[in-house]
Amino acid sequence: MPHFTVVPVKDRAQSSYDSLEGINWVDYRDTGQDNHDHQDTVSSDGHGNHKEDSPFLNSAHAANKKNDFYDRNLALFEEELDIRPKVSSLLSRLVNYTNITQGAKEHEEEESAEASRRKTPKSPNMGTLMGVYLPCLQNIFGVILFLRLTWIVGMAGIMQSLLIVLMCCSCTMLTAISMSAIATNGVVPAGGAYFMISRSLGPEFGGAVGLCFYLGTTFASAMYILGAIEIFLKYLVPQAAIFHGTDPLGSDSAMLNNMRVYGSICLTLMAVVVFVGVRYVNKLASLFLACVIISIVSIYAGAIKSMTHPPEFPICMLGNRTLVRDRFDVCAKTVIQGNITVPSQLWERFCLPGNMSSAQCDDYFIQNNVTEIQGIPGLGSGIIRENMWGNYLQKGEILEKAGLQSVDTHGALDNFGMYVSADIATSFTLLVGIFFPSATGIMAGSNRSGDLRDAQKSIPVGTILAITTTSLVYLSSVVLFGSCIEGVVLRDKFGDAVRKNLVVGTLSWPSPWVIVIGSFFSTVGAGLQSLTGAPRLLQAIAKDNIIPFLRVFGHGKTNGEPTWALLLTGLIAELGILIASLDMVAPILSMFFLMCYLFVNLACAVQTLLRTPNWRPRFKYYHWALSFLGMSMCLALMFISSWYYAIVAMGIAGMIYKYIEYQGAEKEWGDGIRGLSLSAARYALLRLEVGPPHTKNWRPQLLVLLKLDEDLHVKYPRLLTFASQLKAGKGLTIVGSVIQGNFLDSYGEMQAAEQAIKNMMEIERVKGFCQVVVASKVREGIVHLIQSCGLGGMKHNTVVMGWPYGWRQSEDPRAWKTFINTVRCTTAAHLALMVPKNVSFYPSNHERFTDGNIDVWWIVHDGGMLMLLPFLLKQHKVWRKCKMRIFTVAQMDDNSIQMKKDLATFLYQLRIEAEVEVVEMHDSDISAYTYERTLMMEQRSQMLRQMRLSSAERQREVCFLHSLVRMGSLYSDEEEEVVEAPPEKVQMTWTKERCEAERRNRNNAPENFRELMSLKPDQSNVRRMHTAVKLNEVIVNRSHDARLVLLNMPGPPRNADGDENYMEFLEVLTEGLERVLLVRGGGREVITIYS
């Protein structure tokens, strides 16, 4: 045994992480170094080691800083650190989540270097109460509660009103459950519902529904303004009316004209406020919310007080008809002045003035008595029995009380204005459309996700609590109104019977003015909020550039305020103002909101049923059946409230959908005659061809390379088992193999091999396709499979191949050379690679792991494959009960505590449940064992190289040829020097030069051996062996009992001379582990924190 001298190998200087590839890294060490942005490049070194564009890469100055990547403990990965950064570097980037590296292109554009230079964003600090619950309350409670709920209870009765409230609130609750699942499936930036739907169902649906949501929000602002003007003109300052009617019909039209004038003025003022300073709107939001809460509390206080001291609001009845109370002073036909009975003002209204003769009076007035009843009997009066059932009216029908005696005769038409009558025809369906806007506003929390401390917890809790609270308030209000207020007063929309008081105000305590003033300010506030939110939503749609004619609305003031979008919003809201009727505008915005909620439910149901890898909501209490129920309720409510509005709204959404589809892709009609399936498949493939899949939709589409034995049987069927467990029947799986030979001669064998593989796929429950190719060399056949498998957009993105077992014992180098060549090809093709080692120990589909861990050793970041694979495996029953543990490596100069905290936060954002551990690797000296093992590896390589050279010389000399093997191994290939056609006769030819050369070689043999024994190992190999030994030591120490270990697979050396050493490094790295999955990313992000 030779003696070795161990020489310590000094690490090259490494001053910092050097902000890998142009990203402004937030390093754990305070180096004081600044970094500058550079342009991404794509390059290749000719060995398949491509440096490509990546969300976290920029390789412009990698060559200048190559020495800085050298790290004694990560030397195996040093050649690729420019495209696969250290985990510590990646995690430091995640300190500021507004500039997160994960995600899609649109997020990267928003988080450009210019934006980060402009201003450092404040950390979000809003909790569930202030960030979600109260904003949702403010948006849900609104004008309908104060102006129309009493009227709805009077018309529909308590039972049908409860049904209306229950239907609308159930619809929004189911939508909130679906929305919570979507909102907790990653970060939801500005845009709220539009963002969620467009990123879940695509730009066509997103654009259509986004515009519907925008139109709904815009019409909501018009509705709130009309409500505020109605309160202003009816209850606050009736004298401000500009137009006055002379008859009942004329007064209605005059009121509408007043609403149009004042509504337009109010809209203009609000738009100016929003344009000048939106921050003032946000500051006043809490004041408006306080008004709402105080008003609601006053209603409950008044209802409780009415049990003992009901408020005094008498109603004057003529027979059973309700009279307009402000037209006369005393509720009597005659009054006594002194001792003389004189006609009252009421008499003069129904009779000719100055004559007590009954002949000159209205017939109905003469034959019926005038009575006065209590308008607010109180909670204990039993009035609830009369208000239990509905009493729908036609337009112009007079409000009558059923229990009062009346002689039914026709009165004079001139006196019609003295009675309280219905201004519109009512029905159950109409009331549903009018009430539904009071259940909307549930998106307020998701729209503020960027301001929340923990959006994934706050949005579901806050939204569902807000809907529960508002639903209880609505349900209890329906019962209280029906229990306290007289039926004819409930049916009196504008309070004509109670001296033009707001009906709900008559119940409130201490004064009706509390409700009037509170509802006015809350309605104005809600209108301002809608005018603020709608332009931002339109701006978000315009910036996505999916609807070309909206592009101009993406621009705004220098501070980002959407000026042009605000202008368009004002014009559309003016259309709602010109309608001038709250009861006509409410069903319109109901349609648009219902359309939006329908697609939120659809998005959740589709995502749940498709089980895309990115669908990992933190909110667990959802189900596709609930989403479909919510979707069905939305559709039903649309047609219940107004079938023609529903058709118009769906038509608008459909036209926008087709417009976006037409602008974005060519029309594909299909042939239809030759088969619908072929047409649909062709259409789908052409759609897939448009571009690479979004990060959210990325799932491993597998190409499994199988090895067949001499009898055409699958040698390692557990590769198929592993593929079936990983895919769980989803996505694409192609199983490929190579037969060595000539296609014309081997066609039969190819068909037999295909059948054998298909049979094995059926046994292992692999749903996919099989492809066997015949090639003169196995290596070339594998390259053909990698290049040509799949069709159009249905192509593989991940290669699965087995480990070349026994490569050390074999004198034939073809097995491991083919393996390394395949690794290089997958890298060059930007494909991910998985190599299950010891695959025969992997579980079958019939086994169940009841406990244990899946350990992920995340050493370098190459797209997130290591995070995604365990999540996909755990979807299968074999691995479902295994726990996931993630280990990452910290160097001496890393802050391991901060790394662990950042990694835990990152996993929380990814919605992946895993135990996190940071392993510290100290810069220890290279051990004698490492040095000796490196030396033995290099001596073996040198010896085998010399043996192969001498063998090759002999073969060339004697022209000896081995018979060709018809069925080649997948991981073996023939030497290039082999002659194709063997001669029938072997003839040896000796020359004088050959004799002397042979004699020299024999004399030099001892000298060659001495050179071999005195060989000094290469320093880079020592470093790589040190990395392999140290990493293996910590992996075995922590994960020796793990069910499966996932590990970053180092890339092959750029210099092909070190290929054999690379195989040795991989062996050392995985020694002592039962099941190992070596993973290489394909150079793109496959997992994202975004929804």
SSE diagram, text form:
Layout: H1 87-93, H2 105-110, H3 113-118, H4 128-140, H5 143-147, H6 149-183, H7 193-201, H8 203-236, H9 248-276, H10 278-305, E1 314-318, E2 321-322, E3 334-337, E4 340-343, H11 345-350, H12 363-367, E5 370-374, H13 428-435, H14 444-447, H15 455-484, H16 487-490, H17 503-507, H18 512-543, H19 563-579, H20 582-610, H21 624-641, H22 643-664, H23 676-688, E6 702-705, H24 718-727, E7 733-740, H25 743-763, E8 769-775, H26 778-788, E9 798-801, H27 814-828, E10 832-837, E11 853-858, H28 865-873, E12 883-890, H29 896-909, E13 915-920, H30 928-958, H31 992-1013, H32 1019-1039, E14 1044-1048, H33 1059-1069, E15 1076-1080
Parallel strand pairs: 6-7, 6-9, 7-8, 9-10, 11-12, 11-14, 12-13, 14-15
Antiparallel strand pairs: 1-2, 1-5, 3-4, 10-15
Domain SLC12A transporter C-terminal: 717-835, 849-1091
Pfam families: AA_permease, SLC12
Catalytic activity: K(+)(in) + chloride(in) = K(+)(out) + chloride(out)
